[in-house]
Amino acid sequence: MARVAFRSSDVDLMARMMRAEAEGEGKQGMLYVGNVIVNRAVADCLDFKSIRTINQVIYQVQGGNYSFEAVQKGNVFYQRARDFERRLARLNLNYWREHPGKYALWYFNPYAPCPPTWYGQPFAGQFKLHCFYEPKAGTCDSVYMG
Q: Which of 61, 43, 62, 63 minimizes the C-alpha distance to 52?
């Protein structure tokens, strides 16, 4: 059973985001970004209480900006999804989860060492240039179950 309900348009949208955010980090990096996308759709907590679809995750606005930088700036995001990224997106949507993105709700590229916390959330791990952060214990149990 899929981790979150999805249509083929969601697969394409997610594939485009995974590529735009992490193409330079290869298959594994794109899968970790996919973990964050799906985790946000299943998380019933924090900034993601009313977010339930892939479309809502990708186009979420926080503080006047899109949550994912690629939506605003990403010429790659606005290109067509490729079969390779679609396959990766389907893996994430259906079941694939691994550390450090397994339970992560946030990631970023700090251009420096990963800080131990980011907006008060603990560091989960790093893959290449991206730092991943999970919710603090007890603040978002749904991400650990979904």
A: 43
